[in-house]
Amino acid sequence: MSRAQRRIVVVTGAGTGIGRATARGFSAQGAYVVAVGRRAAPLAETAAGHPGIEPLVADVTAPGAAELIVGTATQRHGRLDVLVNNAGVAGGGPLGSLAPETVARHLATNLVAPLLLTRAAVPALTDSRGVVVNVTTSVGSRAWPGSSLYAAGKSALDSLTRSWAVELAPSGIRVVAVAPGAVDTPLGAHQGLTPQQQADVRRWQVARTPLGRVGRPEEVAWAILRLADPAAGFVTGVVLPVDGGAVIA
């Protein structure tokens, strides 16, 4: 594959979990991947052994981050073909415990950052007739006590996916979403949960997943790569659950 044939992909939240698996999956297909995350060490681990992955340390919620991320991809490679809005924070707590700063942090990461990043990417994606893949959650449409803030932000991103799919179709841009269920990622540890609390959450999740297990990051990455593939060129506006059947149980 020549350099001109290799797709240029941006993946946010690429330091661990689904983002890491997605960045490596695109790299294995021959793409150049700008892997975005807040911490240098996990990004370096994502890129290790994958020469097509270029780490970019950036906080997607910082002022100017969207322009920095898109500009890095286009200045280094001259184009942008796929944007994967994967960075997110989970948890939050019951309604009565939600402090204003918690609400602001969740919405800034899970909703505002993807919106601003997609807006910044539209000119480049128009040139390439590219794809936006939003990573949401399959249980956003169901009651989720204790994580209502997370579910609400991700549900709003589902809505944006459908609206953008129609709005951007005349520009040749497809917009899709992948909605994971319970997946084996470090998200619980990042929330500050103890090992016992993480185990309790996992038991609760498995009990509500018909396939009886949690998913693997690579299984979610598979769906992201398939929806972003040119062969899926007639697919837009879809929100695909990858959740072991949890959303329909």
UniProtKB/TrEMBL annotation:
UniProt keywords, alphabetically: Oxidoreductase
CDD domains named in the record: SDR_c
Highest taxon above the source species: Bacteria
Family matches, as Gene3D superfamilies: NAD(P)-binding Rossmann-like Domain
EC number: 1.-.-.-
Oxidoreductase recorded as keyword: yes
Domain called Ketoreductase: residue spans: 7-186
Membrane-traversing stretches: none
InterPro entries (alphabetical): KR_dom, NAD(P)-bd_dom_sf, SDR_fam
Keyword Oxidoreductase assigned: yes
One example GO MF annotation: oxidoreductase activity
EC primary class: oxidoreductase
Protein name: SDR family oxidoreductase
Species this protein is from: Micromonospora reichwaldensis
